[in-house]
Every structure is written in structure tokens, then in C-alpha cells.
Amino acid sequence: MQNIRRRVAGIACAAGIAIGASFAAQPPALADTGSSGSSGSMEIYLPVSTPAGMQALNAAVTQIGKPYKWGGTGPNSWDCSGLVQWAFRTAGIQLPRVSQQQARVGHAIPFGALAPGDIMIFWPDASHVGIYAGFGQVFNAYGPNGVPIGFTPLNRMPPLKTIRRLG
């Protein structure tokens, strides 16, 4: 039984599925002799995109080149949080309007598990948001007014506050 659990957990990890650490633990009734039957539970996130995140990213990049406008919610111009809110709405996920509120939705993801479609919140005050596009690029709307929105290398972005995974 222990070998089966290890293989299932290994297959899940190889397939890139985020699992709780307790997933591979045996229920107390099936525990091996000498086991206490209790296990801690913690979330483990892998660098795997969610379908909703990928759909949002795909929607966002259709807006490339449109101008940044503070307070812009589309369709002709965008601010950072307006773009992210709209992109995720196309994927069926309702987000709050501003980046400070978007910084509290979904699941917090460690940097090592960053995957395309995750939202990245920047600055200590959470005043900027973008969608990670992979290959060290963030798709985002940034100012001043009139600057075309598009990709920015992650190493040129402001300090990172949090990464959130939705879907």
C-alpha cells in the first residue's frame, strides 16, 4: 500500500498537479503498524499554469499596444488592474477592481512555483499588477498615460509584493 501511495504522489508531481502534503498520507484506518495516523497538511504549489490563468493571459495579450490610462477599464485603454480584471473575467473569474484588493485573492504562490497566468503584485503598497507570461516576462499596463501596454522583463519590474494563482 505504501508503494502505491508513493507512485500516485509521484505521478501527480510529474504531471504538475498541486497537491496537499496529506494527499499521499494514508487514512488512519489503513495506516501501517506503528503509524500515529495523523499527518500535517500543507499546500504544495508547482510551477504549472491553471487553465483560467492561461485563458486570462491569452485574452490580455490581445490588447497589446493599446495605451495605458490611469483608471482605464477598456476597451480602448487600460490601467494595470483594469486589464487584469478584464482578462480574468474572460476566463470566468471575477476579480476586485484595484490591485490592492487583487493582491488578496486566489492562492499565494512562492516565487519558485511561478507559472504563466499567475498574477504578480508589485510595490510594497500593492500599487501595480501584471500577469506572468513565462520566459521572465510580465504582461502589464504601465504609465505614464499613453504608453503602449505590453511585455516587461521581470528583472525590470518594481519590487515584488506577492504572486497569486487563480482558477
Automatic annotation (TrEMBL):
Residue stretches making up the NlpC/P60 domain: 50-167
Short name of one Pfam family: NLPC_P60
PROSITE patterns with a match to the protein in the record: NLPC_P60
UniProt signal peptide: 1-24
Listed InterPro entries: NLP_P60_dom, Papain-like_cys_pep_sf, PG_Endopeptidase_C40
Keywords: Hydrolase, Protease, Signal, Thiol protease
Family, as annotated: Belongs to the peptidase C40 family.
Name of the featured protein: C40 family peptidase
Annotated source species: Gordonia hankookensis
